[in-house]
Amino acid sequence: MPDVQTSKTQLKKSMKALQETGEVLVELSPSRLVQLELPETLHDAVTAARNMSHEAKRRQLQFIGKLMRQVDVAPLREKLAAWSGENQTETARLHRIEHWRNRLINEVESINSFIQSYPFANIQELRTLIRNSRQEVLNNKPPKNSRLLFRFIRDVIMKYETERKEND
User: Fold this and answer.
1) Beta-carbon count within 10 A of 54 CB
2) Are residues 63 and 91 in the same domain?
3) Residues 91 and 130 occupy one common structural domain
């Protein structure tokens, strides 16, 4: 059987994919970049690309793509995907906290639902924060207590999630 050659289009697509991965690397924080344990030349190229203007950065990204041909990108992409998933999980948690805060401030009966979901929450502190947050809304005051309520809910939810992970 003859060897199957990669078409020019397929080569271009794979090079473009490496370049796009390189763009993600450029956007990473320095601490995350170190965790990837990249070869020194690739690490230096990624770091240099951060401070470049548009056209220079475009050429540097092409160079990064070329350097990435010599690196096994599968583990890199797995780690990047995991980090992306962490961000999505955190965003979902913040939305859930915000939703609870809005419900607790705007719906009188929502406190019962919250206590059913998180029975270990300090009910007295929760009631005080809700009452003060409602007063802030009525009096058009800065949302100091609303922020405190958000932090309280966040702490309760984080404690709940931590205990659930430990019990699994």
Assistant:
1) 6
2) no
3) yes
